[in-house]
Automatic annotation (TrEMBL):
<feature type="binding site">
    <location>
        <position position="254"/>
    </location>
    <ligand>
        <name>ATP</name>
    </ligand>
</feature>
<dbReference type="InterPro" id="IPR003846">
    <property type="entry name" value="SelO"/>
</dbReference>
<feature type="binding site">
    <location>
        <position position="82"/>
    </location>
    <ligand>
        <name>ATP</name>
    </ligand>
</feature>
<keyword id="KW-0067">ATP-binding</keyword>
<dbReference type="GO" id="GO:0000287">
    <property type="term" value="F:magnesium ion binding"/>
</dbReference>
<comment type="similarity">
    <text>Belongs to the SELO family.</text>
</comment>
<feature type="binding site">
    <location>
        <position position="254"/>
    </location>
    <ligand>
        <name>Mg(2+)</name>
    </ligand>
</feature>
<keyword id="KW-0548">Nucleotidyltransferase</keyword>
<feature type="binding site">
    <location>
        <position position="103"/>
    </location>
    <ligand>
        <name>ATP</name>
    </ligand>
</feature>
<feature type="active site" description="Proton acceptor">
    <location>
        <position position="244"/>
    </location>
</feature>
<feature type="binding site">
    <location>
        <position position="166"/>
    </location>
    <ligand>
        <name>ATP</name>
    </ligand>
</feature>
<feature type="binding site">
    <location>
        <position position="173"/>
    </location>
    <ligand>
        <name>ATP</name>
    </ligand>
</feature>
<keyword id="KW-0479">Metal-binding</keyword>
<keyword id="KW-0464">Manganese</keyword>
<feature type="binding site">
    <location>
        <position position="116"/>
    </location>
    <ligand>
        <name>ATP</name>
    </ligand>
</feature>
<feature type="binding site">
    <location>
        <position position="80"/>
    </location>
    <ligand>
        <name>ATP</name>
    </ligand>
</feature>
<comment type="function">
    <text>Nucleotidyltransferase involved in the post-translational modification of proteins. It can catalyze the addition of adenosine monophosphate (AMP) or uridine monophosphate (UMP) to a protein, resulting in modifications known as AMPylation and UMPylation.</text>
</comment>
Amino acid sequence: MFYSRYTPIGEQFAVPAAPTVFKDAELVLFNSSLNTQFGLNWDAESARLYLSGQQPLPDSHSVCLAYSGHQFGQFNPTLGDGRAHLIGSFTASTGDIIDLQLKGSGATVFSRGGDGLCALGPAVREFVMSHALSSLGVPSTGCLAVLSTGQSVYRQGMLSGAVVARTARSHIRVGSFQYLALQQDEKAMTLLLEMAMKDMGLKFDDERRDESIFLFFQSVCEAQCDLMLKWLQVGFIHGVMNTDNTLINGETIDYGPCAMMEAFSFSRVFSSIDRQGRYAFGQQPNMASWNCGRLAESLLLLFSEEQPAIERFSAILVNFSERFNDGYQQLWRNKLGLLQVHIDDQALVTELLELMTKHELDYTNTFASLTALKLHQLQDQFPVAEALKPWLVKWQAITEQYDDGQVAAMMVSHNPAIIPRNDLVEEVINDYYQQGNSTLLDTWLEALSTPYQYTVYPEKWLKSQSDPNRYQTFCGT
Ligand code: AMP
Ligand code: MG
């Protein structure tokens, strides 16, 4: 049932390595809907044994993967899974091939002096955020479970240790190609390319090799572009969009210093290490495009003549911008219920974004308030900010021409009513550190599963609480 699908690419790429055995591990969080959706159907004890390294997955050999990466623009040739083990892949009952990876499962040849461990807090964050983002309709890796290891991890003080069990449709990163390019390993890169294409539903045609590679690159660009539009739609700030944290299939991976935008600003940054604002909210699409450029450079290894390939790759990158610009216009149309094209649409959007920035309005609540208005309900829960009142008249004048029901339906499906707010995520994390469970999460997680549902919520879940200029996130170590 399980297998090691990266092993044929080469032992330097998928290095055999067993996860640490945590005998006292306990299952802290378990995503039973993923468990059934993928057809694993594990009971809690089987999950505990497999995910704590006590029992290997049948027929599989655990590996850690090599990759390089541009970290904040600086190239690092040897990163790789320094605290993660890919314990096996399987075909889910959905038909998807799924990789199962443990994070925090001990040091590997790629640890570079790190301890290979993960603290409970970041593990809980990954569980909550990946579930919330998937439910918001954002492509994301999943989190099947979080286990406490029963051991301590030293960060700034001693913290409880944990293992994250991550599910992903692929662990192939831009950095995976960068690594093989650096090794000048054309054979391994071709194998990786074939696998990556298959994962994305594409066929590598050996007779039309070059065209296959361009098709692949274009698909990666499209997947990245679409992911950026989704992040913009829901206000997600990844925080560490390095090429090693960029999956070629366009799923969100690595919930380290991520956060949700509350008070709106395109220049919003939360990560303590992002001092230049390289990965600020509004910078993310540029950075995704830049990362795609690094993929193109790596793929040049597969061409005998570089110049014509560079020209084709460059043209595809231009398409990235065009696709993004079209999607960007549509994004605001969707969020504002602008069913038809109107001459004043663009000005309306620009003015709204300026007002939101100036008055530090909550991104989610602002659009929820406009949605509630069109729904003719929940307007007490989602009041329109005073500062928007003059603007509102103009928006109403345009949208009143359209069918109210259709406007509301469009807005409901693009404007979440609830999101995983930063202070609540922190509260849940704190609960887990203090008492190993969280009554807040028990109810909140269920609500986060249907974030586009316009209903009555506890006030606390909707309140923009974290001070946007003070809230800081740290790399998920
Ligand atoms: P990240 O910032 O989580 O994407 O990690 C960047 C690189 O650092 C990856 O190669 C990780 O495997 C490695 N890394 C992060 N934390 C640790 C740790 N505690 N021990 C060893 N390696 C780590
Ligand atoms: Mg990473």
